[in-house]
Write a structure and sequence with these properties.
Blueprint: E1 5-9, E2 12-19, E3 22-30, H1 38-50, E4 55-58, H2 63-70, E5 75-85, E6 99-102, H3 108-118, H4 127-134, E7 139-147, E8 150-160, E9 163-171, H5 180-194, E10 199-205, H6 209-217, E11 221-222, E12 227-233
Parallel strand pairs: 3-4, 9-10
Antiparallel strand pairs: 1-2, 2-3, 4-12, 5-10, 5-11, 5-12, 6-7, 7-8, 8-9
Helix pairs in contact: 1-2
Length: about 240
C-alpha cells in the first residue's frame, strides 16, 4: 500500500499521496506558500510516474499556483469558491438535541459513511484522505456531531500560524436543517480563536450551493478569485 511521502524537486517540497484510496492516482500538494516553477512541477511529475502513478490531481490551487502546472500540461477539472472569515460574529456551537464531542478512532467508519452521503464521488473521503486532512496543518481539531447516539456530522479544522483552515465539514443529508452545520462551524471558528488565528479559510465546490449559502450566512466572505483542481494523465504518449 502506498503511503504519503514528500518529493524533493529542485529544492522544493511537494507532498504526494494516493487519491481517495486509488493507488494508481496521485494527489500532488505543494507546500503552502511555496511557488513552484514549471521545471519543478515537471520533475515532480517524473518522480510520480517513476513510482507507478498513472494520473495526477493537484490539491486546490490559487490562480498564481496554477500557472506552472498548466505549462506542464495540467488541465482544470474542478473549480471552487474560496472564502474567509475574520472571526467576528461567531455562530453558536450548539443545536437542539445534538452533542459535539471529540472524534475518535471508533467513529471513523460512521464518519466516512456520512461523508459519502454528503459529497459526490470526486470529493468523497476515504480513510487516507480523512487522515491527510487532519494532518495537513501543525494543529488540528476533529469533532463529531451526535444525535441519539448516531454520528450525523463532523468537521476537521486546522491551524498554521495566524491562519485557520476549515478542512472538512459534512452533515448527513437526513439531518439537514437542524442547525448542525452551523454548530460545527461555530465550534471550528471558536477553536481557531483560541489558537490565536486571525482569519479562517474554507473552500467549497461551485456546484455545492447549499454549503456556499451556509458559509455566507455565517459570516464568511468570498475571495475575489477562487481555486481550482488540475489533472494530468501520465499515460499520454510521449510523457
Amino acid at each position: 500500500m502506498r503511503r504519503a511521502e514528500t518529493l524533493i524537486a529542485s529544492d522544493a517540497r511537494v507532498r504526494i499521496v494516493p487519491w481517495r484510496g486509488n493507488h494508481s492516482v496521485a494527489l500532488l500538494s505543494p507546500t503552502p506558500g511555496q511557488q513552484l516553477r514549471p521545471d519543478t512541477v515537471q520533475e515532480a511529475v517524473t518522480q510520480a510516474k517513476n513510482r507507478g502513478y498513472q494520473q495526477i490531481f493537484t490539491s486546490a490551487l490559487a490562480i498564481e499556483e496554477q500557472l506552472a502546472f498548466e505549462k506542464c500540461g495540467f488541465k482544470k477539472v474542478e473549480e471552487l469558491h474560496l472564502l474567509h472569515h475574520d472571526l467576528v460574529g461567531i455562530p453558536s456551537s450548539s443545536a437542539h438535541g445534538m452533542k459535539l464531542r471529540r472524534g475518535r478512532t471508533a467513529d471513523i467508519d460512521a464518519v466516512l459513511q456520512l461523508d459519502g452521503r454528503a459529497f459526490d464521488g470526486f470529493w468523497r473521503f476515504d480513510r487516507a484522505a480523512l487522515f491527510d486532512a487532519r494532518d495537513a496543518t501543525p494543529r488540528s481539531r476533529f469533532r463529531v456531531a451526535v444525535v441519539d447516539g448516531k454520528v450525523v456530522g463532523y468537521h476537521i479544522t486546522g491551524a498554521a500560524g495566524p491562519m485557520g483552515y476549515l478542512q472538512r465539514l459534512a452533515v448527513d443529508p437526513d439531518f439537514h436543517g437542524r442547525g448542525i452545520g452551523t454548530a460545527l462551524v461555530g465550534d471550528a471558528l471558536s477553536w481557531c480563536i483560541r489558537r490565536h488565528c486571525e482569519r479562517v479559510m474554507v473552500n467549497t465546490q461551485i456546484s455545492n450551493e447549499r454549503a456556499y449559502a451556509l458559509y455566507l450566512h455565517l459570516g464568511f466572505e468570498k475571495e475575489p478569485v477562487g481555486l481550482a483542481v488540475l489533472a494530468l494523465s501520465l499515460l499520454d504518449e510521449g510523457r
